[in-house]
Amino acid sequence: MASVRALAGRSSRQRHGRFLVEGPQAVREAVLFAASRLRDLYVTRAALERYPEIVDAARAADRFVHPVTDEVMARLSGDAQGIIAVVDAAEHSLDDVVSRAPRLVAVCAQIRDPGNAGTVIRAADAAGADAVVLTTGSVEATSPKVVRSSAGSLFHLPVVTGVTLQEAVAALRSAHLAVLAADASGTTDVETAPLAAPSAWVFGTEAQGLTADELALADAVVRVPLRGHAESLNVAMAATVCLYASSRAQHVPG
């Protein structure tokens, strides 16, 4: 049990190549979309009665299911809602993404807030994106709060980590994606920008956004218009707007 609890820490996750998935929604998606990577499922009696389909699916995939008491679950996780899973980490590469001829990719340039990173992954999944890239310096994709914030989307699409922004841009441009930087300094409006072609959106840090050097890597800098009194949108909100704008343009009924 101590080894499971330790997965809340980055060093333990990296050492063992595993991470913790907490709560019924994320665990359900892990069982359905990443059953081969699921090692153990821990569930309280109440959760077993409430979410029998999750447990049945795990057992059908010949995964280990461990009934535990409420006290044990509380020691394992404070955000479990009675059910957690231990999952092997997946390694996705830029080469894998490029080989699939992607049309829409989200690139997080050193996004450090786990809630924002998880929400960008969720928004990318919902918008039909083919992948998310978390560049070097970003929060770890298997951080517990990233996993929770992604609401299971982490298991739906490739999330590439450990690459620089320059490497990501070069690889995606080689796959014939236009590179679009989302930034308030843009002269192009997301509502009028031509977005039907395959594209990779680059989103900057929460505090500073994208640097001049990072903006220079893009083919275009695009802004989200603010018509009310809000000073700005956080990166997850801006990413959702931009990704859906591209998704809408790419899926015009014809």
TrEMBL record:
Pfam families: MRM3-like_sub_bind (PF22435), SpoU_methylase (PF00588). GO terms for molecular function: RNA binding; RNA methyltransferase activity. Keywords: Methyltransferase, Transferase. Gene3D superfamilies: 3.30.1330.30, 3.40.1280.10. Signal peptide: none annotated. Residues 20-93 form the RNA 2-O ribose methyltransferase substrate binding domain. GO terms for biological process: methylation; RNA processing. The keyword Cytoplasm does not apply. SUPFAM superfamilies: alpha/beta knot, L30e-like. InterPro entries: Alpha/beta_knot_MTases, MRM3-like_sub_bind, Ribosomal_eL30-like_sf, rRNA_Methyltransferase, SpoU_MeTrfase, SpoU_subst-bd, tRNA_m1G_MTases_N. GO terms for cellular component: cytoplasm. The keyword Ribosomal protein does not apply. PANTHER family: RRNA METHYLTRANSFERASE 3, RRNA METHYLTRANSFERASE 3, MITOCHONDRIAL. Belongs to the class IV-like SAM-binding methyltransferase superfamily. RNA methyltransferase TrmH family. This is tRNA/rRNA methyltransferase (SpoU). It comes from Beutenbergia cavernae (strain ATCC BAA-8 / DSM 12333 / CCUG 43141 / JCM 11478 / NBRC 16432 / NCIMB 13614 / HKI 0122). The lineage of its organism: Bacteria, Bacillati, Actinomycetota, Actinomycetes, Micrococcales.
